[in-house]
Amino acid sequence: MAPEQEVQVIVRQVEEMLASDSSRVEEIASLLGSIHPADQAELFCRLTPPQREAFLALLNAEGLARLLQHLPEEEVEALVARMPRETLARVLDHMDSDEAAYIIRYLPPADAARVLANMRTAADVAPILQHAEDTAGGLMTRGYVALHPDMTVQEAIAYLRLHQPFAQEGYYLYVLDGANRLQGVVNLRQLIVAAPSTTISQLMTRDVISVPPETDQEEVARLIQRYRLRALPVVDEKGVLLGIITADDVLDVVTEEATEDLYRLAGVGVEERALSPLRESLKRRVPHLVVNLLTAFVSALTVSAFEGTVAKAAALAVFMPVIAGHGGNTGTQAATVMVRSLALGDATPRDTLRIVSKEIAFGLLHGVLAGALAAALAFGLYQNPWLAAVVFGAMVGNVVVAGVVGSLIPLGLQALKIDPALASSIWLTTFTDVMGFLMLLGAGTLLVDRLT
User: Fold this and answer.
1) 147: which strand partners?
2) Rounded distance, CA 312 to CA 227, Å?
3) Closest among 118, 175, 116, 128 to 147, alpha carbons compared
4) Which sign, positive or negative, has the C-alpha torsion 180, 185, 187, 190?
5) Which is it for strands 241-246 and 231-235: parallel, antiparallel or unpaired?
6) Angle formed by the axes of helices 385-415 and 315-344, to 10°?
7) pLDDT class for 2, splitting at 50, 70, 90?
8) 8 vs 13, 17, 64, CA distance in Å?
9) Is residue 1 over pLDDT 50?
10) CB proximity list for 347: less than 8 A, separation 6 or greater
């Protein structure tokens, strides 16, 4: 049996035992201890409230800490809200400082202060809480290994063996002076293979990539990805090492930022989940949909201005959704690519001219193809070359405009220091609908005698 299948068998066994006979405490606890905390979290989410209480009673403070690290956000919030504050303090003492700070942020200020007052590791957690959650300071952990530049390799290894410092990321050893200013970095491989008499200052890399604590988490993720770092140090304006951000923390950031961009492009609340309560979904989705309805009225008013033309050449109405829909799809593609490129640092507002030139070229080439297909359909249905020409011109024009606007909106928003993902399809498709109708019905009005 595959390891994953074995885990699922154990999960089902524990679930059945909790449901039928929760008095078999030792056996259940033994089974729980044999599976990873991530699998424990999956099991916890499947249990009924009474079974959850029995489950939690089997875990000590360290076990609860590991469970919290793998539960979904909404489950963490619910569990932390009803956990006694003294118990929560003991649990958070078993977590890395950045993860403990993340959970404390869920609490009201008075409760947060009470929990910190009861934590042994409060001195490591409190500095993180001074920074915004989505910044380098809010992501960092205080768990790092520090060496002095005057140490020899032999002394450094002896220090590590003697003190056995707890560190979340032990691959990098940070070299600090007497004022805790970052001087360089040494990795474990360098330390192990170097001659014992070599000093750390001779061995260390001096050009260390670091960030100030106010750096946005998206920029942190980009730097770690670009330079293939295992950890990124956070320093203040004096160069004092405040903490480090590890690669596993950045994985969470990348997922969070990608989800946020996706939701914003779709106009959905970034906190919503498939199983969110109905009231929550109504609160997050309805405002966006109402705005969508209002913008649709703009498109309707545009069409109403050409009511006479449509009455005389009803064939134009057949191609209105074709022109508007294809322009909207083209613009959404361009906006999605641009938002992603801006997030990865592949494009900046300085590249506007190149991007617009490319989108114009793409729009002309693709527009000719799409326009030719639409014009062929128009001619096939009505045998009217003038109608085919109007459809062809409107399709080419709207595809070009859609691509340019779809790329310019995110660029403009970033230049204004606004999240480019706010260039959601609701505004873009409204624009392409209106422009498509204006081009199709405007040209149709000029040539209406040829179309009837």
Assistant:
1) 175
2) 63
3) 175
4) negative
5) antiparallel
6) 30
7) very low
8) 9, 14, 21
9) no
10) 338, 341, 355, 411
Q: What is the pLDDT of residues 242-251, one digit of tens each?
A: 999 988 888 7
Rounded to an integer, what distance in angstroms lies between the CA atom of residue 51 and that of residue 130?
A: 38
- Apex 64 CA angle, 60 and 70, nearest 5: 150
Question: Would you say the C-alpha torsion 238, 243, 247, 252 has a positive or negative sign?
Answer: negative
Q: How many angstroms separate the first and last alpha carbons of the chain? A: 73
Structure token digits, residue 206? 């001096």
CB-based contact 332:406 (threshold 8 Å)? yes
pLDDT for residue 89 is more than 90: yes
Q: What distance in Å separates the CA atoms of residue 125 and residue 144, rounded to the nearest whole number?
A: 14
pLDDT band at 47 (very low <50, low <70, confident <90, very high): confident
> In 3D, which of 172, 143, 147 has the Cα closest to residue 157?
147
Q: How many CA atoms lie within 13 A of 399 on its CB side?
A: 23
**Quick one: 136 exposed, middle or buried, by C-beta within 10 A (0-12, 13-18, 19+)?**
buried
User: From CA 152, how far away is CA 156, in angstroms rounded?
Assistant: 6
Q: Give whole-number Cα distances, 51 to 27, 55, 73, in Å.
A: 15, 6, 20
**Which amino acid is present at 325?**
G
User: Would the CA dihedral through 65, 147, 246, 234 be positive or negative?
Assistant: positive
Q: Are 230 and 216 in contact (CB under 8 A)?
A: no
Alpha helices, DSSP H only, in 60-149?
61-68, 73-81, 85-92, 97-104, 109-117, 122-129, 136-139
The residue type of 187 is N
When pLDDT is averaged across residues 346-374 and rounded to a whole number, the result is: 92
Whether this model's pTM surpasses 0.70: no
User: Hey, what are 27's tokens?
Assistant: 């056996």
Cβ contact 423:307 at 8 Å: no
When comparing pLDDT for 86 and 417, which is higher? 86
Rounded-to-integer distance, Cα 148 and Cα 174, Å: 8
Q: Which pair of structure tokens corresponds to residue 48?
A: 């009924």
**CA atoms lying within 13 Å on the CB side of residue 389:** 10
Q: How many CA atoms lie within 13 A of 326 on its CB side?
A: 22
How long is the chain?
A: 452
